[in-house]
Amino acid sequence: MSNLTVSVDAHLIKRARMRAIEQGTSLSAKVREFLRAYAGGAQDALAQQRAESTARLLAAMDAAAAVSGPAMPAAAAARAQRRSLRDEIYEDDFRARDRAAKAVRPRAKDVSAGKRAKPRAARAG
After folding, report:
1. Which residues lie closer than 8 Å to 13 by C-beta, 6 or more apart?
2. What is the distance between the alpha carbons of residues 78 and 56, in angstroms, rounded to a whole number?
3. pLDDT of 21-36, one tens digit each?
4. How far apart are CA 69 and CA 93, in angstroms?
5. Distance (Å, rounded) from C-alpha 47 to C-alpha 97?
6. d(Cα 63, Cα 58) in Å, to the nearest integer?
7. Contact partners, residue 107, CB within 8 Å, separation at least 6
8. Whole-structure pTM over 0.70, yes or no?
9. Three-state DSSP class for 105?
10. Rounded distance between C-alpha atoms, residue 93 and residue 89, angstroms
11. Contact 62, 54 (CB under 8 A)
């Protein structure tokens, strides 16, 4: 890793170091991030900004949830615990259940004629 000498106002460096400490990092790490984003182009910088914004948003949501307590009222929590239709459908072998239902149910054409349809071979002759 190479060293870089930069001339910056002492007050600006002090404020930047304090902000970096608040963010749990160092001023050197922040300068490296900036240079990496700058050298990588706009897309890398934008992706980095999105990742940082997402991390800050998730941290804020976690903090708000910890302060406010449960996120859902009791009725909504009860609905969420109820089994979904998808869970019920996939609980057992739904294909076997569908085949059994089709075997019991007569075809619509047969019901309208009032009799059982004859096989094709018998109808042709």
Report:
1. 27
2. 31
3. 999 999 999 998 888 8
4. 40
5. 49
6. 9
7. 117
8. no
9. coil
10. 8
11. no
